[in-house]
Design brief:
This protein has 152 residues and is α+β, with helices and mostly antiparallel strands. The protein has helices at 12-42, 111-139, 142-151, and strands spanning 44-56, 59-67, 73-77, 93-98, 106-108. 46% of the residues lie in helices and 24% in strands. The protein starts with 11 loop residues before the first helix and ends with a helix.
């Protein structure tokens, strides 16, 4: 090894790049989380009835109709669907949240319907980082890791 060059610990650049990616994804997930929390704080509750299903690729998304407090009837398609229509039968009532100023913005009042997006975004960024850190912890013996860190 040349005298002027210091040896980096194993996975150094991978950990740096994945850390930046994880920070970006956590910041994005927090943005979506607080946006969703703001929506839930402003939204009004309503009961909606599934009138039919709309097939989108391999998923059936329920189409619901509900009546606002101003007695307007709104029809919308849920953002998340199911692989089959038997899990939630047609005609079933679901709890909904909608914005009173804009009743076209509607979400099903369900944990996964509301919080799926922030969890996926956070996991998408932190998962690879945790995997690489786990590999480094398992694959690099403790004494080799200490020796390389002392050299740096």
């Amino acid at each position: 090894m040349s005298k002027g060059k210091k040896k980096r610990p194993p996975f150094f650049w991978t950990i740096v790049v994945l850390s930046i990616f994880a920070l970006f994804s956590i910041a994005t997930a927090l943005f979506f989380y607080f946006t969703q929390q703001q929506f839930v704080g402003k939204a009004l509750k309503a009961k909606g009835r599934i009138i039919h299903y709309e097939k989108q690729r391999k998923v059936y998304r329920p189409v619901l109709t509900f009546v606002t407090q101003q007695k307007d009837t709104v029809t919308f398609t849920a953002s998340l669907g199911k692989p089959d229509t038997t899990s939630i039968p047609k005609g079933k009532e679901l709890d909904l949240l909608y914005l009173p100023d804009n009743p076209k913005i509607v979400k099903v009042n369900d944990f996964w319907q509301l919080w799926f997006q922030p969890f996926v975004i956070a996991g998408f960024g932190t998962g690879p980082l945790l995997f690489i850190l786990f590999l480094r912890w398992i694959l690099v013996p403790k004494n080799q890791a200490r020796n390389t860190e002392q050299e740096v």
